[in-house]
Amino acid sequence: MENEVLEFDIGLGSGLPSTHPLHLTTSQNSAPTSTSAPRIYLPEGDLSDLEPYEGMEFESEEAAKAFYNSYARRVGFSTRVSSSRRSRRDGAIIQRQFVCAKEGFRNLNEKRTKDREIKRPRVITRVGCKASLSVKMQDSGKWVVSSFVKEHNHELVPPDQVHCLRSHRQISGPAKTLIDTLQAAGMGPRRIMSALIKEYGGISKVGFTEVDCRNYMRNNRQRSMEGDIQLLLDYLRQMHSENPDFFYALQEDDGQFTGNVLWADPRARANYSYFGDTVTFDTTYRSNRYRLPFAPFTGVNHHGQPVLFGCAFILNETEASFVWLFQTWLTAMSGHHPLSITTDHDAVIRLAIMQVFPETRHRFCKWHIFKKCQEKLSHVLLKHPTFEAEFHKCVNLTELIEEFESCWLSLVDRYELRDHEWLQTIYSDRRQWVPVYLRDAFFAEMSITQRSDSMNSYFDGYVNASTNLNHFFKLYEKAIESRNEKEVKADYDTMNTNPVLRTPSPMEKQASGLYTRKLFVRFQEELVGTLTFMASKAEDDGESITYQVSKFGEDHKAYHVKFNVLEMKATCSCQMFEFSGLLCRHVLTVFRVTNVLTLPSRYILKRWTRNAKSNVILEERPTDIYTGYLESHTVRYNTLRHEAFKFVEEGSKSLDTYNVAMGVLQEATSRVALAKKNEGRASNVDGRNNGDSARSGIRANYTSGDHLGISDQPLSEEDMDKKIQEL
């Protein structure tokens, strides 16, 4: 009996153009016929129920594959090519087997896995399913079904989930056109998928997932960048030829350029030698809002301004690529690891940093997480306008880990968000972005609650959504020139203008001559803040004294400062010095009550001083005679106090040692009184001159009339004499 040829277009899942007709040859006795040609997968009418059978013929191997895949889509499983057989005569494929994607079992190659740990094991998908379709090529050139196994040993996927199966996910031509248009407009994959779902009337009708959309956009961007990337390479080669200290590197894989590039100019490399203790790797520009896969390494200079440490273009965003990038950048920075690094909340970047910077403290940018919160919790913010403020307060204002944990649980319970997937994710990563867990690490930030200028991108205001590679170089150089000019201006202001002192403290005058202007102003705020705080002894172990520091009437909100008087070492429970490199008002309050009148050298970080970029080494003691006298007085006081503690401890052990100790103390008291009397006679030789000198010295260092207050009035003669007597 004659055969009839049926045609229908392959629209999805076959990898063929939609204009390629599928020729299905079938016997009139074996299956119903239809001449309809719908645009996707299945023919209309009775043929939509057709399933493969032995003896079914196809015009080509591709047609057989497409038919089995269309059948699989209707039934609810995914397909793949399993095996083939070639002709001994000419090597052409003469037999092909198509199987359910769950056929067989995973092959665990011991040679590949026994010597290395699998960090992210894939889920098990193969369960030994026997469902398959085998076809052979006939002498006529047609392909015939030689065997068909219908039964599966697993559950099949319902129609509304079929689009998630791998063999049925393909982006159609019209969908690609729409994606291209929306990507050019600056939309990201999530918003584009929302538009596609609305356009097609549901996710199942779109025919692919957000991951497919994201991958297509990435590949599309890579293709568009391939031509322009040569411009970047030419620019880098020219810069290196002009200055051999200009560093750049290209990532290659089996001799092929991957598209990843790193460079650092001589100034960036020098900046890292001064300020490379903390680094920000800014991946903002990788997002689809921008047309550049651009990521700069930045830091903070001695004025609190952003400073550049190098730049990268990242076309291939795999873990291996980021490992290469960080290792190469570290080579450019002479192999010196930073103390801390801040990045976006990204799992791939985290894995790379764990490999390259194992001892570096890694922090996720809190401000990026706050921004993501507006997207992930938009429905909550619309329903509960106060949620965002409470969320920020929970993160920023809690000062103890227990306080944060309690506040977080209370917040998610109050708004019924305990099971929210994104909140669970960021909570599990809380030790890498919530401030209370990070205060013991140095990040060069002056405030935990406010975003500093240094955290803003180095290229803000220069690179934006309309920037392409053709315009990038000019904007890149313009940004660097502008940042350098701002640093020069800050240097000039520091060196050529004097700050207004707000207290009579010798420590303030000392700091004004050491710190840059911006850092001095920040230190001054802390110093003035001590005027509202009191310190009281809480514990004394003989070597260190613990003080409770709080505002008047706020004992319930106290900070604890542990002070070793012999080593002049103080630590505060707020950990501001560890986090920012400047002493907090709580430690400064303890210094005030213990007569420490100048900053100990251990608390003056060179990176914050006006000499940060010079070879000048900070002296152990200030050269100023007046402040030198004050510090030496403090050192003498603390040294005697420490020795006295040991003397008292030994002298009180028995009655005999007590009597000896008391006798020695009485003799020492008489000798000290005699020494003071002789010193007073020597001082009177100079008469009035000494008083005048002291007054002029104090007038030079004190600008207010009360050492606990703030005033613009000069000291009176009476007040001046009082200050002399205090000293």
Automatic annotation (TrEMBL):
Keyword Nucleus carried by entry: yes
Subcellular location: Nucleus
Ranges for domain SWIM-type: 559-595
Composition bias, Polar residues: 24-37
Biological process, per Gene Ontology: regulation of DNA-templated transcription
Membrane-spanning parts: none
Top-level taxon of origin: Eukaryota
InterPro entries assigned: FAR1_DNA_bnd_dom, FHY3/FAR1, MULE_transposase_dom, Znf_PMZ, Znf_SWIM
Cellular component per GO, a single term: nucleus
Principal location listed in the UniProt entry: nucleus
One Pfam family of this chain: MULE
Region of interest: Disordered: 17-39, 679-727
GO molecular function terms attached to this record: zinc ion binding
Protein role: Putative transcription activator involved in regulating light control of development.
Sequence similarity: Belongs to the FHY3/FAR1 family.
PANTHER family xrefs: PROTEIN FAR1-RELATED SEQUENCE 10-RELATED, PROTEIN FAR1-RELATED SEQUENCE 5
Name of the protein this chain belongs to: Protein FAR1-RELATED SEQUENCE
